[in-house]
Amino acid sequence: MSSLAWIDFDEAERQRAQRIMALFQERETRDELGLGGIRDSIADHLFPGTSTIQTRLRYMLFIPWLFQMLEGSSAGADQLASEARALENRLANALKAGGESNGVIGRDAGADLQRLPSSVYWAGLGTWGIRLFPGSTDNLFSSMRHLQRARPRVRESEDSASEAQALQIWTPTLPARPTDLLDHTQFKLSLDEAQFIIDRLIAHQPHSLLAFLARSGSSQAECDNIWEHPHLADFPDDARTLVGHGAIFSSVMHGASLLYNLLLSRLRDRAEWIEKYEVRFAEWQSSLDMAGIRAWSLDAFWAAIDHPAHSIRPAAKRFVAEWLGLLTAGNVLDGALTPAARLVQDRERRLKTSQSRFANRAVRDRWTGASGVEPLTFRWAQAKSHLRDLASAE
Q1: Which of 153, 186, 204 is the last residue of a domain?
Q2: Whole-angstrom Cα distance, residue 14 to residue 17?
Q3: 123 with 263, same domain?
């Protein structure tokens, strides 16, 4: 049946495609040197279901609650999509009425909001096992009427129970929707809501660092990087190893990003930009733990970060290996004709072809002076915010 076409596709592939589509729309994930697959593999191991544009944790409950209001409707797919948008806009107003301002998606845009909260959190809802329906929101709207008709009314056998589960949209343990949700609401979780989310993480992402931190309550760390966490020694072995790899990778490759910006600044002949990146590049070099970097095993790194949702291209691995080789040999210098500069320029040219900023002056002239200049943190900021919301439940 065409209304159930989503069932015919492999769920892992569908979720991978949804994550990729979401990443294309996140400004923070712009990837000038082709390191995004590596970055996201690490982030999805440590903090699965998060993304850089998530704001507050209770949206993981708001979205199911809003979509539950549409269940039983006889409206068509387009009308359901319109009604869902209206509900999400009403939610923004209810949050503002409840005194919330920080983290309200659509606070300023109102009805003109382009990126709805449901699209921001949809993949995460599936990853955490809150959403059981395997398709997109459009798939859901197209299938809604059939799902209502097809659910077994009586569960007399294991087969009928299995069929009922397959037709569920949300996990049956979802907490009850507040009656005043669309009048005034807040981001603060109740204790039952917080425990529900922790239970979902433990059940569906048991080996993740996010589940460990949520369960253990080690959520009050205000460190900027996960490898600076005060309870790092208590992390599970695999997570602690991966965090260590992430720390070195972030440190090593930050220099390539800084050099990229410095080289472009020189081509643009912008003195203030040049000075800024020369200073930052020198500070980066002086901060490196070269003993740790020389002891770092790339083979162990690639094995540790392997993730079914991300395919890391051989060219990306070569770029990392060549940059690391130059660094350990002491050949990462900031001159325009150095091997390091040629490596960075060649990498960007191969990735962007005719849109390369090094090869296309018109594209370069539109550059605003900063591209990926901050060290990689693997979505720790978003995970930290979610853990803070869990810890603040009452």
Answers
A1: 204
A2: 5
A3: no
- Distance between CA atoms of residues 279 and 287, nearest Å: 12
Q: From CA 66, how far away is CA 353, in angstroms rounded? A: 44
Question: 156 and 299: one domain?
Answer: no
Question: Per-residue pLDDT tens for 122-165?
Answer: 999 999 999 999 999 999 999 887 776 655 544 444 544 444 44
The total of other beta-carbon atoms located within 10 Å of residue 346's CB is 14
CA 150 to chain centroid, in Å, comes to 34
Answer yes or no: do 186 and 261 share one domain: no
How far is it, in rounded angstroms, from Cα 296 to Cα 284?
A: 18
Q: What is the pTM of this model?
A: 0.88
Q: Does the residue 35 lie in any domain?
A: no
Kindly state whether residues 127 and 254 are assigned to the same domain.
no
**Alpha-carbon gap, residue 197 to 58, rounded angstroms:** 9
Q: How far apart are CA 89 and CA 87, in angstroms?
A: 5
What is the model's pLDDT at position 329?
Answer: 96
Does some domain include residue 232? no
Are residue 273 and residue 355 in the same domain, yes or no? yes
Q: How far apart are CA 238 and CA 284, in angstroms?
A: 28
Q: Are residues 72 and 153 in the same domain?
A: yes
- How many other C-beta atoms lie within 10 A of the C-beta of residue 325? 14
Indicate the number of domains in the chain.
2
How many Cβ atoms from other residues are within 10 Å of residue 23's Cβ?
19
H-only helix segments in the chain: 11-24, 36-46, 59-68, 77-97, 117-127, 137-150, 158-166, 191-204, 209-216, 237-268, 271-287, 290-294, 298-305, 314-328, 339-352, 361-365, 380-391
Structure tokens at 140: 């859901």
- Domain limits for position 248: 237-365
Contacts of residue 136, defined as CB under 8 A and 6 or more positions apart, other chains included, come to 6, 18, 122
CB of 212 closer than 8 Å to CB of 239: yes
Q: pLDDT, tens digit, for every residue of 367-376? A: 999 999 999 9
Tell me, what DSSP letter sits at residue 198? H
Which of 19-23, 195-199, 340-344 bottoms out in mean pLDDT, i.e. has the lowest?
19-23
| Continuous segment of H or E residues that includes residue 168 | none
Distances (CA, A) of 152 to 74, 124, 171: 18, 28, 16
Same domain, 54 and 197: yes
